[in-house]
Amino acid sequence: MAKPKRKKIHEALYYLTVLITIIFISAMLFFISPILFFGHYFYVYIVLMTIGVTLGAFLKGFLKDLDELTHKHHAGLIIIVLIAAMLNFVSLTTALTIHINKSIHFSILSALIFTISFLIPYAYHYYKKER
Fold first, then answer.
1. What phi and psi, each to the nearest 5 degrees, are found at residue 39?
2. Which of 26, 28, 46, 100 is the residue whose CA sits 20 to 30 A from 54?
3. In whole numbers, what is the pLDDT of the chain averaged over residues?
4. How much is the average pLDDT of 80-89?
5. pTM (predicted TM-score)
6. Which of 14, 44, 50 is nearest to 109 (CA)?
7. Where are the domains of the chain?
């Protein structure tokens, strides 16, 4: 009897985590927009990698304790985070590149660097767990 209740709690925490992650990525993007606006390419990429790996490690630390998650949940989370991060970054950095005359490649590369660095800790943990 306790097992279905635990599964529902874990699924509720999972969906709450997905929602909070999307909101946090959006909010974080607006807070680091001055760095994107004024920063040099190299420093922007270093900051994005650092923030991405840190946030990915927090996400991994929270989700590793939810035992009731299936492969579908993990794949869904990765896809949702990937889409949300790419859309947020491309939209904001494209708007910034119009104002500061940086190339569109800057916005796409910034989005890719953040998204990949965000997913690395989570993907590593999931891969390690499956072995």
1. -75, 155
2. 100
3. 76
4. 77
5. 0.72
6. 44
7. 2-130
